[in-house]
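INPUT
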Amino acid sequence: MKSLDPRIERLPELTVAPLPKAPLDQFGSYEVFVQPKEEKPFQHEGIVHAPDLELAYVFAKENFTRRFTCTSLYVVDTRKVFVSATTDGNQNAYDTVAAESVSGSDTFEIYHLLRRGKQHVAVGTVKAGSPSEAMAEAKKHFGDKLVFNIWAIRQADIRYTTPEERDLWNTLPEKRFRDAADYKGGDKLNNFLAKQSAS
Amino acid sequence: MILMYGGGNTFEGIKTDSVAQEDPVLLAAFEARINRGEKIEPTDWMPGLYRKQLIRMIEQHAHSEIIGALPEGTWITRAPGFKRKMALMAKVQDEVGHAQLLYSAAETLGKSREQMIDDLINGKSKYSNIFNYPTFTWADCCFISWLVDAGAIVNQLSNAKGSYGPYCRALDRICAEESFHLKYGHHCVIYLASGTPVQRQMFQDALNRWWAPMMHFFGPSDKISVHTEVLMRWKVKMGSNDDMRNQFLDMYVPKIWELGFTIPDPQLRKKEDGQWAYTEPDWEEFKRVINGDGPCNKERLAVRRIAEERGKWVRDALRKAQTTYVTPLA
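OUTPUT
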């Protein structure tokens, strides 16, 4: 192929039309949560597609904490996040949660959507035997606030950052070349303008 | 219908044209929510037209990030000096990262990522027209880093005030990262401007080549149709193409002039009412390039297709039976 880029010129010619992607040619979906600073709650950051939980963690680290440093990150299979109804106006999502008695002691992370358009933020954990029990428990502990959506995630399903991995983000502050503050052209520009007006 | 998005325009019809068959009660509640300034979240009821238009807009924005990485990416090995190479590599990596965020946001509306990638490499989906032009010199690359990114930021800041929650969240992240791109691009151009006569001429030539595509970037004047009005009311389209272009000219023409460069448009000036006067861009050329007849359309898609084909064995090797694609949550 004719190109300005010699690497592209070296590429093989494509002769056949591309095949549509087979339905199986898709990775699973994983939700990504980040703790931006020590003492701050975890918040939902977005999703990645990956073949398994471990690679989802690696992709999440690249995708969401490449530029912004954080103290911790975790991922969970999207199918393992239990979601309440979404409400609006003055309607509390907890009004849609029915009371239930607790039959087990798994720990669940509880997330709230406090404002539409914002991210889900962690509020704490509850002990319960099932996701719907966890929602009912969350209502008891955190149900006094107006929230528009609630998520419950069993801790056993989460791929957390281990204490040894926390140095993953240690190198970021050194990477000044991708920081807007590292591109101060002001002096050079002013010198240039002064020279222009002098001549 | 001409649609503006994070980085360009397309000419494509939309079939779900009417909102007449939507449930009036649900529609009223949906519009009331937007009027209250609340965002729409993926599980909310939404009109078919809203969903369709957003999928197309976000998907095209994502494709533009992927394809937009190509004309700059080709300069990584030839960027002048180690620092510029590192920075350009980080910038290109960011653009690809932005595509990931945008694809995810579009997925929440029900179109799978694979379907979107299919539509890109088969030429069914469009991307920003400006990336169908070649980067002959390092100065072309600097033009993109500074001014094409500046144009994209004008669009993205405006779209970030739209009504769809996941798109707004993605744009907030993207805009935060773009500030580095803009500063870096300006820095590169200041160095060329204050360099040797050859360097200055190199940027002037790039400016001459890129000015027309840059004016095309924001799209032709919108025809005010019922359709456009509905999309504006639903906060899908946040401003007219002319508004966006004017904002760009207002912010960046003085900065280009400050560096002593000439913009190749004798009509260009700021009028007393604050609007910019300019020579009407050649919209026939714009249509021709969008429809596939630009200098780099074939190359851009071929590179993407080859990447897809060459990556297939890696995806096959990694795939595990227990993972299943599902629509992301938010």
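end of record. The beta strands of chain A are 28-35, 43-50, 72-77, 81-83, 106-113, 121-128, 149-154.
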